[in-house]
Amino acid sequence: MAMVGRDGMPDEVVDEVVEAQDARPPGREAEGTDVAGEFARRRESLFAVAYRILGTRADAEDVVQEAWLRWSRVDPGEVEDPRGYLFRLVTNQAIDQLRRVRARRESYVGPWLPEPLLTAFEVSDPSGADGGPDVGRQVELAESVSMGLLVVLETLAPVERAVFVLHEAFGYTYAEIGAILGRTERGVRQLAYRARQHVQARRPRQRPTASQHREITERFLAAAVGGDLGALMDLLAPDVTMWADADGRSETPREALHGAVVVARYLASVREFWPDGLGVEVVEVNTGPGAVVRANDHPYLVFALELDGQRVQTIRAVLNPDKLAHLR
Question: What range(s) does the RNA polymerase sigma factor 70 region 4 type domain occupy (predicted)?
Fold first, then answer.
C-alpha cells in the first residue's frame, strides 16, 4: 500500500528524480549546484501544493514530474530563489492542468470526489524554512488536505483555488503569490477575499480527535458491512449526507443521499452485494477518519468520513478503480 506523509509526495517519484540526474546538461556539478538535491528537498512541498490545487494524486504527480524536467534544463546560476522558482513552476502548471481536467469532470458519471490519500501526521515545515514546527500551520495544512475542504475547493475558479491554497495553507503573502502568478498584489487580495468568503460558507465542521476517529469509524464499518439498520440509525446524524464516486462503474447512487433514514436503508440494502473476501482496515484518509475496504486483497472502496460529536455527519465513498490503483 502506498503511504505518504500528511503533505508529502509518493516515494516512487523520487526514483524518477534520481534517474533524471544524468539528463542534466554538462557543467552543473562544476557550478557547485546540486540540481537534483535542490528539487528533492522541495518535492514534498511541491506535491502538496499540486494535490491541493488538483485534487488528484495522478495529476499532481504529472505536474511535479513536468516541473522536474523543466528545472533540470534551467541554469541554476541564473535562479536567485530556487524555492520561489519551483513553486511558480508547479503552481502555474497545476492551474493549467486543472483547466484541462475540468471539462472531463463535468462529464463524470455521478458525484466526483478527490482521489483519496492515506495520510499520517508528521511534523514538518512544507515551506522549507528552518526552525521548529509551527503547530498552527500544521493544523491548517491538515485541514487544507481534508476531503471535505477539497470538495469545496472544486467550486472555485482555478486561479482562486491556487491563491487560497498558497495563502491559507502555506502562508505565502499576497505579494509573493502575485509574483508566482504574474498578478498584482491588489488583484491577488481580491481573489483571496472571494475564495475565502466562498470557502467559509461551506467549510466542513470541526475535526474530531484521533481516538474518536477509530472508535466511531469501527462501529460504522461494522454496521455498514453487516447491514445493521438499527446500528446505522444510532450512528448517523439526522442530516447525514452520503456521496459515492464510481464514475458509472458500479451500481451506486448518481446523486447524493440525504438523511439518516435514507442513508441507513441504502447501506443496509447493499449488504448482499458486498464482494467476497472482504477485508476492512481503519485508516486516516486525507487526515480524517476513514477506511480501506479490500476484496480478495484488492482495493474495492475507500470511505472518508466527517464526524459531528459521536455521529457520522458525512460519508464519501470512492469506488472508482482509477482512484484506488495506487493502494495496491
Answer: 149-198
Last residue of a domain, one of 159, 174, 200: 200
Closest by CA position to 177, among listed 44, 34, 49, 25: 49
Angle CA(4)–CA(23)–CA(46) in degrees, nearest 5? Answer: 30
Tell whether 4 is covered by a domain: no
Residue range(s) defining the domain that contains residue 23: 12-200
Same domain, 228 and 195: no
Residues 189 and 280 in one domain: no
**What's the 3-state SS for the chain?**
CCCCCCCCCCCHHHHHHHHHHHHCCCCCCCCCCCHHHHHHHHHHHHHHHHHHHHCCHHHHHHHHHHHHHHHCCCCHHHCCCHHHHHHHHHHHHHHHHHHHHHHHHHCCCCCCCCCCCECCCCCCCCCCCCCCCCHHHHHHHHHHCCHHHHHHHCCCCHHHHHHHHHHHHCCCCHHHHHHHHCCCHHHHHHHHHHHHHHHHCCCCCCCCCHHHHHHHHHHHHHHHHHCCHHHHHHHEEEEEEEEEECCCCCCCCCCCEECHHHHHHHHHHCHHHCCCCEEEEEEEECCEEEEEEEECCEEEEEEEEEEECCEEEEEEEECCHHHCHHHC
Residues 162 and 241 grouped into a single domain: no
Backbone angles phi, psi at 245, to 5 degrees: -105, 110
Q: What is the pLDDT of residue 15?
A: 43
Q: How many CB atoms lie within 10 A of CB 190?
A: 15
> Are 196 and 214 found together in one domain?
no
Express each pLDDT in 229-273 by its tens digit. Answer: 999 999 999 999 999 999 988 889 999 999 999 999 999 999 888
CATH code for position 248: 3.10.450.50
Instruction: Return the pLDDT at 205.
Output: 56
Structural contact between residues 126 and 295, judged by C-beta atoms closer than 8 angstroms: no
Among the candidates 200, 231, 258, a domain finishes at 200
